[in-house]
Amino acid sequence: MTTLKELAKLLDISISTVSKALNDSHEISESTRTRVKELAAELNYRPNRIAQQLKNNKTKTIGVILPTVTNPFFAEVLHGIEMAATNNDYDIIVCLSNETLHKEERSLELLSNGSVDGFIMAVAREGQVKKQTKHLQAIINSKIPILMFDRVVNEIECDKVIVDDFQSLYEATQYLIEKEHRKHILLVSNIEELSVGKLRTEGYSKALKDHNLKPHILKLDNAIDVEENIYNYLSKNKEIDAIISIDHITGIVAINMIKKLGKNIPKDVSVIGFGYEHTQLLSSPKISIIHQKAHKIGEMSMKLLIDSISTEDHKLQTIVVPSELNLSGSTK
Amino acid sequence: MTTLKELAKLLDISISTVSKALNDSHEISESTRTRVKELAAELNYRPNRIAQQLKNNKTKTIGVILPTVTNPFFAEVLHGIEMAATNNDYDIIVCLSNETLHKEERSLELLSNGSVDGFIMAVAREGQVKKQTKHLQAIINSKIPILMFDRVVNEIECDKVIVDDFQSLYEATQYLIEKEHRKHILLVSNIEELSVGKLRTEGYSKALKDHNLKPHILKLDNAIDVEENIYNYLSKNKEIDAIISIDHITGIVAINMIKKLGKNIPKDVSVIGFGYEHTQLLSSPKISIIHQKAHKIGEMSMKLLIDSISTEDHKLQTIVVPSELNLSGSTK
DNA sequence: TTGTATGCGTTATCAT
DNA sequence: ATGATAACGCATACAA
Fold this sequence. Notes:
The structure is a homodimer. Chain A is α/β, with parallel strands linked by helices.
């Protein structure tokens, strides 16, 4: 890699002159400025970023800690984060906690040594279950800003970007009751222990209560055979006339099982799931989905964090990104 | 952030003594060593990584450039890369090219200023179509090692980790012909312009040729309505008795369309697709898949690249990671 | 056993 | 208009 020193030596001028010339300082004469720039271009000089980071005490890099990236929600969020980062000349260092606390702690620990200017994260399932927050507080105490999205720890004071989990489920349930006149709506949940899972279930329950209906909840925590579980439940509870899945898998499985039972969608049973890009392609008939604006969540998160880093008097805030109910065309 | 300088000042000893003490140098007396370490622990001292990087002229960071991360294949590869990185005390900076050449070029350009010790990448679709390789060669020329996986540019001399695209399709096709006695096998492809798409198609064609059968190929380049396209094709070509999809979507769509046409799977039509973690969950009956060891690909890539960085006399190599044909239980 | 001095590549301040 | 010097934080060869 070419350095200022090398350029200076070749041109037989001082390092500082070279530096100033490259930074278009008016102190430097037109002639030497072009002379320097030409050589720099020729040798493909690029300022060493590590040196700049050391000098400026800023890395222009954000640590992104995700529970997983094979879940399409987080993949899509990451996409949004990356785009916003690029547009603001930031890089991202990505760590995956694999839903474990110790990996999350390790990543925060390792990156909080000057490697990054801030963190964007969704907390791991394990930490949320065990209500462990010390490692998060430690980062806050060390003055490195954190932005949490989706899965959030209320006790930690930091910027947050969240989804309207309660509201979206309330509205979806209400829709099924009022517009489609469903009376036996089954909620399928495999994330009951997450903050978002609880909120979604509460939204569903509230809507039912407001209409004097009884909840039906099928919990599939780490169920080995999702298909079988859903199939069995549906054959034993023939009255079910609508299903809401609060993840991106079980809704599609439910559609397949309903068809297997010889029932018609949407005539006999309505199905609403969570989904993102390709979800609707994978089911027939197309599943109705609560579409979380994952990409936007990522984008907003990065923007808010950068603001928090670069603004002097930044005030902590919590942004809610509303979901959208995408009804499949076929739902009557 | 606490620095060596601060520790030295507080203890009233020199910076270098502190540095040596923390690094367990035998030059330093037991007593001062513990004195230093205690204070360091108390103030939560952590060596500034940027400074270390500058000093060592090594970042212990790898630039990872992916076309997208919403495709589960790349998501899974990223997972493997991240794990291997963590296990080897490396960080990863992730960039997404969004399949565009200019973003790929930009990312390489920006990170090749000392930010990373090497790159792991799968080239963007656009670059592969336009056969642009200058930006890649430029990186190689600047002595920064590149490891390419999956989508590979033959002309560039670098380490490579690839999938047995030709072989896996040959074997899957052969299986359908010999074991399931299929004679009209349809290949559904939406990645014909990628190196991997070509290889897969060639494997399929070769197997058919070896058995004197005629190929049927349905190209869906950017087709707006995949469902409709497949449905129409199948209703016009009733003789089709097997389908191979070379991506992770259209296989499942095909299953749904076959059922819609009132045919039985696998009795009337066999279906094999590409898939990863959850793919088989989403179809009923479960789709047979060619399972690419995406996680392993990521892991191997990182290991090989690190070897190339840290070994003096590293020899370039190309590793082939075999796929696995996962037949669904229901296939007879 | 401890301390001094130097350099990694850059930028900024202060001479000349 | 140009150059010398210091500083960012760390590590290390070399003195003491």
